[in-house]
Specification:
Blueprint: H1 5-10, H2 12-28, H3 34-40, E1 59-63, H4 65-69, H5 74-83, H6 88-99, E2 105-109, E3 112-117, E4 120-135, E5 141-149, E6 159-163, E7 175-180, H7 184-188, E8 196-199, H8 204-212
Length: 214
């Protein structure tokens, strides 16, 4: 288990290579199938949902929260406002609540997740706890993949859920994560706060470009 920051840093070069390929594949890798494309938009048959391993999220990931707060994501908000039902200010408030988190970085390797908050690093090995299909008020659907910390003494979140617009095994390009210590059921009710992470090695400009063309 990767328990110390030094251990995390030792493996960082390997993980960064992995995250670099994730970002690269988004533009140039295996294209989405029609089923995957529709699923990413919230439309899929329950029978098409498959179990996924935590390795689908392997890598080092950075929070989007700082980029929203410093204005870097304003071009994304402006584009959304052109076609959406909210003003730029309303979208900013929506994402400010959605992206809110103090976990600046997450590292995932060998079923271990590390959560970096300032200089503090908490880690735990996570076990898969299945998936849950959710139907939203809009009529669209989503899938959350559930994992649970195996160490009762760890200060890492006891329960985590991933949502990345994917419903079957595939390397994640970015993800929304739900974290808590109460229960999986309580997390499934959370609809307003979904901290979002992109590969650690992507620059702000690359992230903005990715979001504008997502």
């Amino acid at each position: 288990m990767i328990m110390r920051k030094t251990a995390f840093v030792v493996g960082m070069s390997v993980l960064l290579g992995a995250t670099q390929s994730f970002a690269h594949e988004h533009h140039y890798g295996k294209p989405l199938t029609e089923v995957e494309r529709k699923a990413s938009e919230g439309y899929f048959a329950d029978k098409d949902v498959k179990d996924r391993a935590l390795s689908d999220w392997d890598g080092i990931w950075q929070s989007l929260n700082p980029y929203l707060l410093d204005g870097s994501l304003d071009p994304v908000l402006e584009k959304k406002a052109q076609t959406g039902d909210k003003s730029v200010a309303a979208y900013r408030a929506y994402y400010k609540k959605g992206y809110a988190t103090d976990v600046e970085m997450i590292g995932i390797e060998n079923n271990v997740m590390e959560f970096h908050v300032g200089k503090a690093v908490n880690a735990c090995k996570y076990n898969y706890a299945g998936y849950k299909i959710l139907t939203y008020t809009s009529g669209k659907k989503g899938v959350r993949y559930l994992f649970e910390c195996s160490d009762a003494n760890s200060k890492a979140p006891k329960y985590v859920q991933f949502s990345d617009h994917t419903i079957a095994p595939r390397q994640s390009q970015h993800f929304h994560i739900y974290m808590g210590n109460e229960s999986q059921e309580a997390l499934l009710k959370e609809m307003d706060n979904w901290p979002t992470y992109y590969p650690y090695n992507m620059t702000k400009a690359q992230i903005v470009d990715e979001m504008l063309h997502h």
